[in-house]
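COMPLEX REQUEST
Ligand: farnesyl diphosphate
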Amino acid sequence: MKDRNATQDRKIPVHVAIIMDGNGRWAKRRGMPRTFGHTQGAKVVEQILEDADEIGIQYLTVYAFSTENWSRPETEVKALMNLLRRYMKSSLAKCAKNNVRVRVIGDKSVLAEDLQESIEVLERETAANTGIGFQIAINYGGRDEIVRAVRRAAQQGLLQDPDRIDDDVIGGCLDTAGIPDPDLLIRTCGEQRISNFLLWQLAYSEFYFTDKAWPEFDREELERAIDAFNHRERRYGGLK
Ligand code: FPP
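STATUS: Structure written out below.
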């Protein structure tokens, strides 16, 4: 059931993007290894996807692994890749049941081949689903995405006439082509920066920062973010 918590005039953001920060700190505080925080974080992702769908959010995008995250210790990178592997395989049935359409954004070409294959299967098998769009950013960097988009545009012969290069040309070559820009960006665990996430797409998004670490994030906090969004006045550079 969609929109069951929406009061009559509460706006539900169409697209919510999330920087899931604080897994490591949350685990350390409990005397556990950082990877425990990531495992817990992956469970929260699944719950929040269900909550977002129930609330009536149409697109959810999460930052799972950045182009910079390769510099973490090898054991942590391995643990994160294994979590993503497990997710791609285990969520197929659930996505079918819940009508979820998955798209992985980022440069997939350097990921392990088996992971690339399971991503391809999950994207293909869920492509015709009509429910919530779930974007997972893996080996993703906003600048890298723009560079790849420009390269793609050049390869498609779209840059030959400089006068015809516009937002739609570049936007249409991004990994997120066809997906509306996020209305709301949430970042957990206190930092207030965008860390190379969706640089192009966040141009007019509202930002919501919470001190909660990602493994502690829950529906209540998501509702709080939506309430805050409802108190913002979006002007898109114009006057009101
Ligand atoms: C940031 O916390 C979190 C990450 C770099 C990884 C996020 C990945 C997941 C939650 C798992 C993704 C799983 C699915 C199913 C999409 P941090 O490690 O930087 O924490 P810290 O700032 O406290 O060190």
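REMARKS: Residues 20-25, 38, 41-42, 45, 62, 64, 69, 80, 83-84, 87, 136, 214 surround farnesyl diphosphate (CB under 6 Å). The domain at 15-230 is CATH 3.40.1180.10 (Undecaprenyl pyrophosphate synthetase).
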